[in-house]
Amino acid sequence: MTKSRRRDVEQVAETGGRGVRPKFVELRAWYELGRLNPAGPGELAAGARKLGLAREIGPATLRKARQFARTYSASELEALLAQRTGRGKALRWCHVRELVAVEDRGVRAELERQVASRGWSVRELREEIRRARGGGRGSEGGRKHRRPASAEAGLARVIETCEAWLRFRETVVAVEKVGLLAMLGEAAVADPGESLLDRMRSAERVLAKVAFEARTLGGVIEAHRTSAEASIVKRAASEKAEARRRKRAAGAGKS
Predict the structure, then answer these.
(1) How far are the Cα atoms of 145, 149, 220, 222, 229 from residue 156, in angstroms, in the given order?
(2) Best CA proximity match to 35, nearest among 56, 3, 16, 9
(3) What predicted TM-score, i.e. pTM, was given to this entire model?
């Protein structure tokens, strides 16, 4: 056990859960609880009280604590405890309960930083985790999209998706001083770390693919639109010619 961990564990043991404890001490307590192997409910309750977790620990909460201890290595725990919000506070247990479900260490570390820097609520964090997984719930490949009922309906969904991206860019990416572009600029000056560099490379690849697919789809739509417009003009010209022919034929009949 490291000196910092021993100090925090001793602090929660001494306070016995009384008073206001720093959040990083509380997180340390949940981590240590997850490392316990109690013989029964009584031993679990005694261990929880010793760690300053006086409230009743249900099976679901205990599973989360154990998942916390399994998921985070000692160094990852220290990095988590070092995260601070704009008000200088550590992350809360309710956030960690969501973070332990993220298997990718790099993604999890980035989400921790975002929770701290942007002050995400649990609901916002849960939504970001869903997006990081590809937008689906319980499906690694993401939510399957239904086929549109018509070409018009399909184009409407394309427009809706593209407009959503533009709103995302306006409110998240390009926000002055606090948006993603500003964060990337700051990271480039400092040491970004290998995890962030990997994330940047992945983003470059995905955006290049999206840009290619967007150009391809745009070209196909333009080709079909110009073809349809030419057909409309041709059909209109043919109908006018037919109308003139009928008018001439009617005039010849009268004479």
Answers:
(1) 14, 11, 16, 15, 19
(2) 9
(3) 0.47
